[in-house]
Amino acid sequence: MTGAARVPGPRCLPAAQVHGASRTDTGPRSCDNSSVCARMIGEDSILEWAAGLGIGAAAGLSAWAAVSPWSQLFGPVLSRADSPQAMALTFDDGPNPAITPALLDLLERYGARGTFFMIGRHVRAHPELARDVAARGHAIGNHTETHPNLLWLSPRRIREELDRCQDALISATGVSPRWMRPPYGFRGPQLAPVLRRGGWAGMALWSRAMFDWKPQPPGPMIRRLGRSRRGEIVLMHDGDPFVEGADRTHVVRALEHWLPRWAGAGVEFEILEDEPGELQPAAAD
Fold this sequence. Notes:
3-stranded parallel β-sheet, single chain, 12 strands, 40% helix, TIM Barrel, 7-stranded mixed β-sheet
């Protein structure tokens, strides 16, 4: 730049000259301001380390936001019951003719209602069962058509999954759900805008998961379900995304154990209704 004074930086000399040798020596060069050079090298290393740390932290935060049922980073989620005195029982991956009818009978016996997040292709296979769930006063939610990982889908593909499931639910039950639950709870930043444009109430996740998605003895499930508290949304499964007639007997057995005890303690059960953030109570008898 014209007229600007040039500020000299650290000057490096041949190593031999630093130690008294002539300037004609062409050996290795050494810095005549070693403290400045060392500081510059150190600053570069610190900046590189800090940049790497920032990238790692951002990646970790994004990964947590994509899978945590409490994260609001990729859009608002419902993960707690509306009333601190009530519990919301939710069931994913049905309807399942091997389990859902027995589950409905059990819930009816104790005056408990739940919310069933159904997969569209299962609804198409068993529309009468989906209709029975709605007829018995339970809430119904959209759990996509084929149960894909939405984290990797484009907005267009997400809309297709939700719309196809919605069509199946409306056809079978006459109900048009406004709550959806992303498969596995996984979501990315592209999901919330799709829900806003589609007029959805939002994403309904959970605060207590039962890890019940594969066959198991009822004992561990009974113990896990016993940790559930009022104010929580409890995640359970009455079906399997990919298997017809999946064995979820342990879910029924665990509820057979706890529903009468919860009823005796005056626990109320809530279902997800239309209004965002609101759950409606159904007192246990």
